[in-house]
Amino acid sequence: MLTLAILVPMIGAAVLAFGPMGSRQAVRLVAILIGLVPLLLLATVWRSFDLSPSAPSFQAVEDYAWIPSLGIGWRVGVDGIALAVAGMSALVFAASIAWPTEHDDRPNQYYAWMLFLEGVSLAVFLVLDLLLFYVFFDLSLVGMFFLIGRWGHGDAKAAALKFFLYTFVGSLAILLAMIALVLASHGPLTFDMRTLIAQHAFGASPGGWAAGLTLLGFVLGFAIKTPLFPVHTWLPPAHVNAPAPASAILAGVMLKMGTYGLIRIPMSMMPETFARYAPILGILALLSILWGAIVALGQNNLKRRIAYTSINHMGYTVLGIAAAGSFLLASHGARQLALTGAVVEMVAHGLITGALFLMTGVFWQRARTYELSAFGGLAGVAPKLTAMFILAAFASLGLPGLAGFVAEFQIFAGSFAVYPWLVALGLIGILITAALFLTMVQRVFFGDVPEDKRSFTDLKATEYGVLGILLAFVVLIGVYPRWLLVPILTAATAIAGSPLG
Amino acid sequence: MMPIGDLGPEIALVLAAIAGLLLSSFVRQDQQWWAMVTSAVGIAAALALCTMQLGDAPKSSFSGTWALDGVAIWGRLLVLASTALILPLMPGWFATDRRHGECYSLLLLSAVGAMLLAGAADLLEVAIAILLSSITGYVLAAYHRDWSTSVEAGMKYFLIGAFANTLLMIGVVLLYGMTGHTGYGPIREALESGVTASLLFVAGVGLTIVGLTFKMGAAPMHMWMPDVAEGAPAPAAAFLLVVPKIGGAVALARLVALVPSDVIDLRPAVAGLAVVTMTLGNLGALWQGDVRRLLGWSSVSQSGYALMAITVIGRSAEALTGLLMFLTGYAAATIAAFAVVTYLRGRTAIDDYSGLGRAAPWSAAVLILALLSLVGIPPLGGFVGKLTLFMATLDGGYGWLAIVAILNTVVSLFYYLRVIGWIYLDERTSEVSTLDRLSGASMLFGGGVVIAVGLLAQGLLAAFASTMLLGAN
């Protein structure tokens, strides 16, 4: 089932890339249909996911040998965390593929890359083999490089290059750390995540330099991907120059690979070491929260501003992860709460920011600019866009009743027991985020309409429908989060619930 | 009696080379491609004979001058397979040359040189193998006698080669003088029974290593690579960038394993060469605007990665597997890239590659695959090669070397991506002219090999895992 979720979009990509050229509408329709397949498959897995206490933590597992000499195999499977993040990703992908593009350039190639990226991105969350994780982690860079470089605007080529180089540094650091981790584990050579999680590498000497350097490799790699301050500088240009659906995927799905990786690999596989250095990660998270919020406030470019809020929001997630990984400092209840919050934040941020970035495409398509000063009073000419944007903005700033609040409340509540000072300072970030979204909404949608924006067209039916579905989930999670929280909590209990030793 | 069968593959190639030479002396120019057929038969026979040797236990032959261990056999198989992939690129390319038929014989003899290098367990045999592989290589590089760039490539290759070979000979003489032997077996015994690391001995080892770096295309004797890549006939360039490197790497591995680390610890020196080589190669390629020169420089940096495996020989059980796997991935990707260059009639300027993705999608796809494999993007062949290299390096306690290699890989990604950017992201301005169908087909086949080496790596890794260096402990 999970294998199909990975392979169907990739096969679809190959067919579109080398198959017959169709009309733009036909190609798009085919791509949407193929893009929906993983979502349906994951929904099926979700329905049959066993939540009873005796159930195995990884389910829907498939395991085939690939390179047994190195202990590498095609292993897929999900726990509650992977399921939640992968499900959100499949939804964001389906929405991004369905989103009408800003260009008519080579639709076959464009949709082929989107489907390819969907397959490899989902695979990052679904695989249970460390090396396959790296394989798909890297391939997602390749897909995104071509999407930004070919279909972006502005200085797209330079932005794509910077994106690829920067994040490739991170992925190579991860590769070295993975090899070090695998070599440090006793027993036969294996990249099987389940075995590695059970083994707790470096458990005997969590303070040794080998353990420290391995953790550093992972944290550096995932921090670049997430991105955390100070290695976030690739993000704004990549976002600003990417086409809107690629931006939505970049923020909604690909940033999650960093935080998901932190939870799945260093926190689960070398918890003793992780616990030792968790406070440093917490401080980095706080810096990202504050830096992302403050710099976002200073941006006059709509897309840059949203891009920086991603740094801020991912900071919350990492704060939750750092708190959850402080195995020595806090009760398991607090750690579970923090981890659950971090995962919900990943889901919420994916949906909300995905929607926000898709909407920036509306601005570019209609006005060819992102400057806040170019807009004003759009509430009068584009009421649907206004409603959607305000809903997403309020969700992003953490209004109760929407998904962002559920996530941030749990993160702060859980982390407070561990790092009260970080949480206290982090709350400033929430305040600034609220300010920056409110001023943005005010400048774009209220006040006087500039002359040339009087003919600004409102959302079309497809755009409205896609955003409606994404934001419906945001409201649903805000009002009735139980269906999402339960599977996440089961996995969070397994990871953060038990004391070490 | 002499175990002639141990040299069966080499003899098959020599016979095929002679047959080709005779054939091309008698047939018309437009029929000379028949020499390719005889060469192909020779290579097929050699591949079969070499494969049959795989079943034997590692042994030394011809009074200990010829090692038949796993590394030698796999290295020679790799040489043969690479030559076989390059062969079908040649008829279309050389068809207009009056002496078309002779190039196949040169190619085969050069391959024999590389194969001898892989199995040589005697310093004099190393020297002879290098000379055989080099002299034929000079002629191949300068085969376009009327084109100054090709002659310049051949000339530079020859000058650097002559210098390197001289140093190698001096090194061999010094080693002979200090130990009294040229065979690796007796030298090892001499070292174990008290020959110390005198200055002259160290100089001898150093000069011999320098001589071998010429074949590997590693620092300090790497300067010929970009010139050959740019100027030599494109199929010959593919051959010269790949095949001697395989032979040279195996020979260097054997030499490093020969000297016990308590006599001289060569590992830091080899690690230093690795760092210098990969860094120089990448810096040379960084702002290179000429695609073939860029491939040449990148090939230098790839030698640096191969040196990582040689650094940890004896310290990590994975070192030989890593070396062979890396060389396989490198050979597949480089041959595929040069197959594209050949198919595009040797074009090398940026403009000829801009927008290739739209004008010639299949060529573009193969070239992009080859470049991504050279970076080490999974799941292509180059990735498995680099993965096993990194595993061996970390396992052997050279973590810092792996980190340097990673930084270099990032740098290399930059220039490979520039080429990919021209190919895929730029607009096309001119028509694409291509060579014959045979080279087109072998280009596609080469692209398939790049993918297959990655996806089917298990078969190779399992085979390489049982390899060992004869006499190494």
Task: Tag the structure with descriptive keywords.
heterodimer; A: 501 residues; mainly alpha; two-stranded antiparallel sheet; 19 helices; 2 strands; B: 473 residues; two-stranded antiparallel ribbon; 21 helices; 74% helix; globular
Order of helices and strands of chain B: HHEEHHHHHHHHHHHHHHHHHHH
- Note the main sheet of chain B: 2 strands, antiparallel
Query: How many strands, which pairing sense, and closed or not: the largest β-sheet of chain A?
Result: 2 strands, antiparallel
Tell me the number of helical segments of chain B per DSSP (H or I, 4 or more residues long). Answer: 21
Share in β-strands of chain A: under 5%
Q: Low-confidence spans of chain A: pLDDT under 50, at least 5 residues?
A: none
Structural class of chain B: mainly alpha
Oligomer: heterodimer
Strand content of chain B: under 5%
* Number of β-strand runs of chain A: 2
Fraction in helix of chain A:
over 70%
Task: Walk me through this protein's architecture.
The complex is a heterodimer of chains A (501) and B (473). With 501 residues, chain A is mainly alpha-helical. Chain A starts with a helix and ends in a 5-residue tail after the last helix. A two-stranded antiparallel ribbon of chain A has the order 1-2. Chain A has helices spanning 2-18, 24-47, 80-98, 107-126, 130-151, 156-184, 193-199, 209-225, 235-241, 244-269, 271-297, 302-324, 332-367, 378-381, 383-396, 403-416, 420-445, 461-479, 482-496, and strands spanning 59-67, 72-78. The longest helix of chain A has 36 residues, at 332-367. The model of chain A has no long low-confidence stretch (mean pLDDT 88). Chain B has 473 residues and is an all-alpha fold. Chain B has 21 helices and 2 strands. The longest helix of chain B has 32 residues, at 148-179. Chain B is globular. The interface between A and B is medium-sized, with 32 and 30 residues.
